[in-house]
Amino acid sequence: MVVYVEYDVECPCSDGTVLRADVYRPAGQGIYPVLLLRLPYDKSNRHYYKGYLDVPRMVAAGYVVILQDVRGRYASDGTYYPFVYERKDGYEAVEWAAALPYANGKVGMFGMSYHGYTQLAAAAETPPSLYAIAPVMAIADGWVDMVQDETMPFDQGSLATWALESILPDQLKRQDRDKELERAHAYIDELPFRLHDQPIREWAPIKKTVPNSFYFDFVNRQITEQTIQQVDVREKLKHIHIPALFIGGWFDSLLGQTLGAYQQFGGKRMLWIGPWTHSNLDGWAGDVFFEHATSPLGVDQLKDLTDLHIKWFGHWLKDKPLNIEKPVHVYHMGKRRWDGQERWPPNNAGISRYHLNHHENTSLQNSVRTLEKKKPETNQTDQCPRNPAAPFPTRGGNLLMAGHGAGMFEQGDLHEREDALVFTTQPLDIPLEVLGTIAANVWVSSDSPLLDLFLQVSDVTPDGKVYNVVDTFIRRTVDDRGRPRHVQVDLTPTSYRFGKGHAIRLAIAGSNAPRFDVNQNNGTTSRTATGGVPANDILYYGGQYPSSLSIPIR
Fold this sequence. Notes:
The chain has three domains: 3-144 and 228-341, Rossmann fold; 156-222, no CATH class; 350-553, Galactose-binding domain-like (Jelly Rolls). Helices cover 20% and strands 34% of the residues. It contains twelve helices and 23 strands. The protein has helices at 46-50, 55-60, 86-98, 114-124, 156-174, 178-189, 191-194, 204-207, 214-219, 225-231, 255-264, 305-318, and strands at 3-12, 18-26, 32-39, 64-69, 103-113, 130-138, 244-251, 269-277, 284-285, 288-289, 328-332, 337-341, 350-361, 366-372, 380-386, 420-424, 432-446, 450-460, 466-477, 485-498, 503-509, 535-541, 548-553.
C-alpha cells in the first residue's frame, strides 16, 4: 500500500503555541480513524516509524498515524518541562486530530514510556474523540521516584541517563548553543562512568551545560506541590472509561508503575507482560534469551506487537471482533511460553515460605547460610557492613541506565562480596512455578540514621551459575539505632520457573549503585553530600525474628 506522508503538520493550541506532527495516511481519498503518538524524542528516528511498531502496516490496516512532538521539543514551539503540559496539550491534540479532513472523528493513542504517560494524561482530561489507548511500559506519575526527599531512594541512574542522553541535546540545539552541545556529547560518551560522580546536585554533565535544568529541580525537590499533583494522574485513572491495552516487561524499569496504572484503571482493560526490558523487546533480557517473546505473540499466536495493536484498535475504533480470549497474557519465563490468565494479580495455588537460617560447616570452618522450610528455633544474627566509598554495585534487573544492561546476568562474583549476605536453598526436588510478587519479611537494625536494603532473588543453576530474577531497593528512617525492626517489602512481580536441581537464592546488601543514591550513613545521601562513613546493619533471623521469603506459586 502507498503511504502518503506530511511532515511537521501544525496543531495550534488554545494558548497560541503550535505543535507539529508527521502524518502518515493511506494515499488517495478517504477518511479513517486516527492513531496518535505524542513524544518528546526525535519523531524522524526509525525507531518510532518502524521499531517496536510498524507504522506502514498500521496505515495499511486503514489508519491515519500521527507522530507529534510535544511542547518545546524538536519541531514544536514552546518551552519543554517534563510532564507538566501533557494533560491539556494531549486533550487539544486529540480533538485537533479528530477534526482533520481525512479523519473520521475517532482517535486512539499509542506509545511507550514517556508517550505512555502522554496517553494517560490526555485520557485523564476525557477528550470526547478519544476512543481507546495502548500505553506500553507506561507511568501515570512521571515524578513518583524523582521528587521525594532523602528519606526515600532516588533513582539517579535513570534520571541522569534520561536527562543527559534523551533530553539535553535537542534542548541545546534549539538554543543554538553549539559549544555546550559539543560538551554534552562528550559527557554522553563518558556517562557510564559519570553516574558515580557525587554529589548528584553538583553533577557536572548538566551543571556545565544547562545549570538551570529541570534536572536540578528534581534533585533538590524544588517543585511546587500543586505541580506535582497536576502531573500525578493515578487517582484520575479510576474515572477513565475508555478501553486501555497495557503492555509491560518483566525486566522493564517501569513495570511496577505499569501494573499500578492497570490495576487502578476504570475502563475495560487488557494486560500483556513479556520477557522484555525497557529498550529491548526481541527476547534478549541481559544474558538470557526467551524464545517467542514477540513472534508468535501470546496463546492466540498473533504475528507481533503491531498485529496486537491493529486488533485492539480495530475492535474499539472499527467495531471488528477482537478475537483475543483472555484479558491477561503473561510470558512464563523458564517454560519459555505465553499463558492466558483471567486476572492480575493472579489467583495462586498458595505460598511457599522459606526461612533464613545458617549452619556451621565444621569442615570448612565457616557458616553456610540457607533458606529452609522449617523456621529456626534459636535467634541468629549476621552483620552486613555498608561503606559509601565502595557501595554494592548495580548489575541487571529492572533498569534503564547508561552502561548497565537490564535483565538477567550472572551474579556469582557479587555474592562473594563481604557486604552481601547470601541465603540459598538446597537443590529443588521438583520445579517451583512462580507467578506474582515475591515478598520478603526481615528483621534488621542499623547504626545509621537511614537504613538501605537491596534484596535480590536469583536462580542458581546446577552448574553453579547465578542469575538474578527479581529485586527491590528500599530506604527507611531509623528512629532507634541498634534496635531490630520488622521490614516487609515486595520484590518485582514475575512469572518464572525454578527448575528441578536448581536452587533459590536471596542476597541482601545495603546499596545498589550507581542506580540509587548512596547512603552516607550520617543522615545524608550522595544526592546532596559526600564524605560518608562506614556503618553496620544487623540482620536477625530465627527464633523471635522469623525472617523469611514468601514465594507465590501456581
